[in-house]
TrEMBL record:
The lineage of its organism: Bacteria, Pseudomonadati, Pseudomonadota, Gammaproteobacteria, Chromatiales. Residues 525-917 form the PEP-utilising enzyme C-terminal domain. The keyword Lipid biosynthesis does not apply. This is Pyruvate, phosphate dikinase. It catalyses: pyruvate + phosphate + ATP = phosphoenolpyruvate + AMP + diphosphate + H(+). Catalyzes the reversible phosphorylation of pyruvate and phosphate. The gene is ppdK. It is an enzyme of class 2 (transferase).
C-alpha cells in the first residue's frame, strides 16, 4: 500500500453513498453532516484500513493511518475548540465500529476516549460536575478494559456491585461522585492486575489501541457467527470502518437525555415517531437495557421543544433517505444531536404497511415499495399467533418487542439454548435478565426470547425482530436466577425444562403450552401483492395435492397448480389396501380389478382439484415414486411371518397333545369343546395368513432396489405397468370431461415424470391419445387438456429438442435435477457432507435450497433454448423446491421461464420475488 492512500475521511468529506468503504454508519454520518443535520464532528477510518491491518501479521496499523488520524484529530480540535489530551478543555471521542451491512451489537464501541487523570480533572473543572466526570471515567475504563484489553466484564461488575451495596444505592443514579471515583479507581486496579500494566494514559496511545480493537472485533467469534448465520459474504461487507466522533453527553443532568427513535413504528408500521429515551443517561444504557426507558411520547411532556425538534429530524431523515430510519440521538443541555441513522429493521407487517403508505404519501414509487422488502420476510406474516379461544392467564407482561407467539421449554443461557434447541431438536425459549450480543447463538436456536429487563430497542428486541422471532422484553415481574436455572413470577416458579409460552405481539408470558392459530393476510399485503402481480412477468403457481391445499394456494394468490403429486393421493389410509392389491397382483386381471376400484377415487380427486382451481390450470403428475414404497417394510414382514410360524406351531402342538392325551376319543361333549377351541386357532387360517405375508415378502424382494431414487420410478413404471398410468390418465380426462361438460372452465395438464427420452414420452402420449378418444366418445363431448413433461433428468435437458416435439410444456423438477447434476443424494447429502461443504466454502449454498445457477441453471437454460427452438411457444416452469426461493426465482425470470410453482404458503414470497426479478431485469436493460 502506498503512503498516499487515503484512510481517514472527515464527516464533511466522506462519500455518503460508499458504504463499502466507510461502513453503513460512517457513510450515514457523512451524509447527515452534509445535508445539514446536527452531527457532532468526526471522521471515519475506512474498511480498507481494517482489511490491510488484519492481513498484516505484524499487528501494526497500515502506514499512514495514524498520521491521517492525527491530522483529523487536529481538525476536530479546531472545530470544537477543545484539545485531545488538553487538561484545560479536553476533547473526548467515541470510537465505534460500522461495516457495510448492519450487524447490531456484533462489534465493539468505546466511549469517552481521551480521559486520563489530567483530562478528567479538566473535564470536572469545565463542567463543574465531579459526579459526571467520574461517571464518564469509570465507563471509559470499563469499556476500554473490556474491548481493547480483554478484561472480563464480571471483574468490573464485581467491584461496581460492591461499591453500590456499600453505598446502599438502588440504581446507578443514586451513586455519588465519591462512589464513582472509588469505582473508577477500583477499575484502574482491575485493569492493571489483569494486564500487568498500568492503564494507558496517553490519549493517542488509547486511540491507536481502540482502533485496533475495533478492527479486531470484525474477526471476533460474535461477528463471524452473525455473518455466517445471515449469509453476509465478503462482497456484501468486508471489514469494519472505525468512526471517531466527538463525544456529546446525554448524562449532563435533567436537561440531557439519550434515546433511540424509529421514524415509524417498526412493529406495526404506523406512521408515527416511535422510540424510547432516558433522561440523564448515556446511549449504552438504552441499548444494553440496563434501565427501562420511557416511550418517546413522554418527551412531549418532559421536553416539548426537544420533541418538536425530534419531529423535524424525523421528517428530514425520511425525506432524504426515503426509508424508515432507526436513529440514535442525544440531547446535551438542550441541544439535540443525531449520532447515527440506518434503515430501520422492521417486521414483515411493518415493512408491508410502510411500503404501501409511503407510496400513497408520494414518498416512494410502487417499484421502490416492492423492492424494499426482502420477500422471505413475508413468511413472518404467516407466523402463528395464540389461539384467542384458548383461555389462559398471563403470569407476567413485558414489552411486545417482536411479534409472533411461541411455546417451548425455558432455558436460561445461550449455550444451553443452543444445546437443547439446535443439537437436541427441542423447542426452547431463551429466558435472560437482559441479553448481550454474545447470546446470539442462543437466539438462533430458540423459538423465542424473554427478558426481564430492557426496552423495545434493546439488543434482544432488535435482533429478534430481524430474525422474525417472537420476543417479550423487560418483563419486570419476572426475576431470573441464571445460576439456579429458575425464575420467579410472583409466588410462582418456573425452572429450566418447564414449558412456557410468550406472545411477542402483546408482551404476555404464560406458563405451559398454548395452541396457536394461523395468521391472516393484512389488507396492505393484498395491495402490495396486487402491485407485485402487475410488475411480475413470471406467474406463480402452487404445488398442491389436495382440495384443501388448493384452496390455501388460491387464498395466497396462486394462479394454478404447477404440480399435483398423485402418489400423495395413494397414501390415504382407506386406499392403501387397494393400492397394495394393485401392486402385489400376480395376474393382469387381479391388477385391473384393483385399478377399477382406484379409478373412481382418483377421478373424484381430480374433479375436486379442477373445481377449486377453475379457471386456472391444474398440472397433474402421473405416479412417480417406486411402487415398493407403498409396501410394508421387508424386516417387519419377516418378523411377522416368524411370529405367525410360532403360533402355527403351537396350534399344531395342541392337536398333537390332544391326540397324546386321548382327547380325540374322549366323550362327545369334551370333544366338542376341544374342537371349538381348536378352530379358533385353526392351523389352516394361520397358514393362510403366513402364505399371504410370504407372497408380499416375495413381492417386496422382487421390487427391492439398491438405489430406488435412480430406479424403477416415474415414466419407467408407466411403461412397465401401463395399466397404472392408463387408470390415472382416464381419471384425469373423465374428471375434466365431467367438469367441462358442466360448464366449468377446467384446465387439466398431464405431465410425465422422470422422462429421459422422447420414446418414453411418445409411449405415454399414445395411451393419452387413445384414452382421449374413448373418453370423448363416452361423454360425447370434446375434452381440452395439455400434455407435457417434467425435466428432471440430465439427459432430458440434453434432448430438449426432441422432447419439445411431443410436449406442450416443460416443468423443471429441480430437486431431482440437482441430485442428478451433482450426483448428491437428495435424501442424505444435507445431513452428511453438505454442511461441511458450506462451512468450508467448497459450495457457497445448499444446492437443494438455492438453485445452483452455474450448473443446474446452465442445464435449464440449454433446455429452454433448445426446446423453444422447436416449439417457440413452449410453456416452461419450475416445480422443484427452488420455485419458492427468491434468488432462484430471479434466475428463472432471467432464463425466460413462464412460471414458478411452490408450496402454498410460499406463494406470497414468490409473487413478490417475481416482481422484484422483473424490476431488476428491467433495471438491467435500462443500463
Ligand atoms: C423435483 O424433482 O423437483 C420434483 C418436483 O419432483 P419430486 O420432488 O416429487 O421428485
Ligand atoms: Mg422429481
Amino acid at each position: 500500500m502506498s503512503t498516499q492512500q487515503k484512510w481517514a475521511f472527515a464527516f464533511e468529506d466522506g462519500d455518503g453513498k460508499n458504504k463499502k468503504l466507510l461502513g453503513g454508519k460512517g457513510a450515514n454520518l457523512c451524509e447527515m453532516t452534509q445535508i445539514g443535520l446536527n452531527v457532532p464532528p468526526g471522521f471515519v477510518i475506512s474498511t480498507e484500513a481494517c482489511l490491510a491491518y488484519l492481513e498484516d501479521t505484524s499487528h501494526a496499523l497500515p502506514t499512514g493511518v495514524m498520521d491521517q488520524v492525527r491530522a483529523e484529530m487536529t481538525a476536530l480540535e479546531q472545530k470544537t475548540g477543545k484539545g485531545f489530551g488538553n487538561p484545560e478543555k479536553p476533547l473526548l471521542v467515541s470510537v465505534r465500529s460500522g461495516s457495510a451491512m448492519s450487524m447490531p451489537g456484533m462489534m465493539d464501541t468505546i466511549l469517552n476516549l481521551g480521559l486520563n487523570q489530567d483530562t478528567l480533572q479538566g473535564e470536572i473543572r469545565a463542567t463543574g460536575d465531579a459526579r459526571f466526570g467520574y461517571d464518564a471515567y469509570r465507563r471509559f475504563v470499563q469499556l476500554f478494559g473490556k474491548v481493547a484489553l480483554g478484561v472480563p466484564d464480571e471483574k468490573f461488575d464485581h467491584e461496581f456491585d460492591e461499591v453500590k451495596r456499600a453505598a446502599h444505592a438502588k440504581q446507578d443514579v443514586d451513586l455519588s461522585a465519591a462512589d464513582l471515583k472509588d469505582i473508577s479507581e477500583r477499575f484502574l486496579k482491575v485493569v492493571e492486575e489483569f494486564t500487568g500494566r498500568p492503564f494507558p494514559s496517553d490519549p493517542y496511545e488509547q486511540l491507536e489501541i481502540a482502533i485496533k480493537a475495533v478492527f479486531n472485533s470484525w474477526s471476533g467469534k460474535r461477528a463471524v457467527d452473525y455473518r455466517t448465520q445471515f449469509k453476509i459474504t465478503p462482497d456484501m461487507a468486508n471489514g469494519t470502518a472505525v468512526n471517531v466522533c466527538t463525544m456529546v453527553f446525554g448524562n449532563r443532568g435533567d436537561d440531557s437525555a439519550t434515546g433511540v427513535g424509529f421514524t415509524r413504528n417498526p412493529g406495526t408500521g404506523e406512521n408515527k415517531l416511535y422510540g424510547e429515551y432516558l433522561v440523564n443517561a448515556q446511549g449504552e444504557d438504552v441499548v444494553a437495557g440496563i434501565r427501562t426507558p420511557k416511550p418517546l411520547d413522554r418527551l412531549r411532556v418532559e421536553m416539548p421543544q426537544m420533541a418538536k425538534e425530534l419531529d423535524e429530524l424525523r421528517d428530514k431523515l425520511e425525506t432524504h433517505y426515503k426509508e424508515v430510519q432507526d436513529f440514535e440521538f442525544t440531547i446535551e443541555r438542550g441541544q439535540l444531536y443525531c449520532l447515527q441513522t440506518r434503515n430501520g429493521k422492521m417486521n414483515a407487517t411493518a415493512l408491508v404497511r410502510t411500503s404501501v403508505e409511503m407510496e400513497q404519501e408520494g414518498l416512494i414509487t410502487k417499484d421502490q415499495a416492492l423492492l424494499r422488502i426482502d420477500p422471505t420476510a413475508l413468511e413472518q406474516m404467516l407466523f402463528p399467533r395464540l389461539d384467542p379461544s384458548f383461555k389462559a392467564e398471563a403470569v407476567a407482561t413485558g414489552l411486545p418487542a417482536s411479534p409472533g407467539a411461541a411455546s417451548g421449554i425455558a432455558v436460561f443461557d445461550a449455550d444451553r439454548a443452543e444445546q437443547m434447541g439446535r443439537d437436541l431438536g427441542q423447542k426452547v425459549i431463551l429466558v435472560r435478565e437482559e441479553t448481550k450480543p454474545e447470546d446470539i447463538h442462543g437466539f438462533f436456536a430458540a423459538q423465542g426470547i424473554l427478558t426481564s429487563r430492557g426496552g423495545k430497542t434493546s439488543h434482544a428486541a432488535v435482533v429478534a425482530r430481524g430474525m422474525g422471532k417472537p420476543c417479550v422484553a423487560g418483563a419486570e415481574g419476572i426475576s431470573v436466577d441464571v445460576s439456579r436455572r429458575e425464575a420467579m413470577v410472583g409466588d410462582t416458579q418456573f425452572k429450566e425444562g418447564d414449558t412456557i409460552t410468550i406472545d411477542g405481539s402483546n408482551g404476555r408470558v404464560y406458563l405451559g403450552a398454548i395452541p396457536t392459530v394461523e395468521p391472516e393476510f393484512t389488507e396492505e399485503l393484498s395491495v402490495l401483492l396486487s402491485w407485485a402481480d402487475e410488475k411480475a412477468r413470471l406467474k406463480v403457481m402452487a404445488n398442491a395435492d389436495t382440495p384443501d391445499d388448493a384452496r390455501t394456494a388460491l387464498k395466497y394468490g396462486a394462479v394454478g397448480i404447477g404440480l399435483a403429486r398423485t402418489e400423495r393421493m395413494f397414501n390415504d389410509v382407506d386406499r392403501l389396501p387397494t393400492v397394495i392389491e394393485m401392486i402385489v397382483a400376480e395376474t393382469p386381471e387381479t391388477r385391473q380389478a384393483a385399478l377399477d376400484k382406484l379409478l373412481p377415487l382418483q377421478r373424484e380427486d381430480f374433479r375436486q382439484l379442477f373445481e377449486v382451481m377453475a379457471p386456472h390450470p391444474v398440472t397433474i403428475r402421473l405416479l412417480d415414486p417406486p411402487i415398493h414404497e407403498f409396501l410394508p417394510d421387508e424386516h417387519q414382514l419377516e418378523q411377522e411371518i416368524a411370529d405367525l410360524r410360532g403360533l402355527a406351531q403351537s396350534t399344531r402342538g395342541m392337536t398333537a397333545l390332544a391326540g397324546a392325551m386321548g382327547l380325540l376319543h374322549a366323550p362327545e361333549e369334551t370333544r366338542r369343546e376341544f374342537d371349538a377351541l381348536r378352530r379358533t386357532l385353526d392351523p389352516m387360517l394361520v397358514e393362510d395368513a403366513i402364505a399371504k405375508k410370504e407372497a408380499m415378502l416375495r413381492k417386496v424382494r422382487v421390487l427391492y432396489e439398491t438405489n430406488p431414487m435412480l430406479g424403477h420410478r416415474g415414466v419407467r413404471l408407466g411403461i412397465t405397468f401401463p395399466e397404472i398410468y392408463q387408470m390415472q390418465i382416464r381419471a384425469i380426462l373423465e374428471a375434466a370431461a365431467e367438469c367441462q361438460k358442466a360448464g366449468m372452465d377446467a384446465h387439466p395438464q398431464i405431465k410425465v415424470p422422470q422422462v429421459c427420452t422422447a420414446q418414453e414420452l411418445l409411449k405415454v402420449k399414445a395411451y393419452v391419445d387413445e384414452l382421449h378418444q374413448l373418453v370423448q366418445a363416452d361423454y360425447g363431448f370434446p375434452v381440452k387438456f395439455k400434455f407435457g413433461t417434467m425435466i428432471e433428468v440430465v439427459r432430458a435437458c440434453m434432448r430438449a429438442e426432441s422432447l419439445a416435439e411431443e410436449a406442450e410444456f416443460f416443468s423443471f423438477g429441480t430437486n431431482d435435477l440437482t441430485q442428478a447434476a451433482f450426483s448428491f443424494s437428495r435424501e442424505d447429502a444435507e445431513n452428511k457432507f453438505l454442511p461441511l461443504y458450506n462451512q468450508s466454502n467448497i459450495l457457497h449454498d445448499n444446492p437443494f435450497e438455492v438453485l445452483d445457477v452455474k450448473g443446474v441453471g446452465k442445464l435449464m437454460e440449454l433446455a429452454v433454448e433448445w426446446g423453444r427452438k422447436v416449439k417457440p411457444d413452449l410453456h416452461v416452469g419450475i416445480c422443484g423446491e427452488h420455485g419458492g426461493h427468491p434468488a432462484s426465482i430471479a434466475f428463472c425470470d432471467q432464463a425466460g421461464l413462464d412460471y414458478v410453482s411452490c408450496s402454498g404458503p410460499r406463494v406470497p414470497v414468490a409473487r413478490l420475488a417475481a416482481a422484484q426479478a422483473a424490476l431488476q431485469q428491467a433495471g438491467r436493460k435500462d443500463l
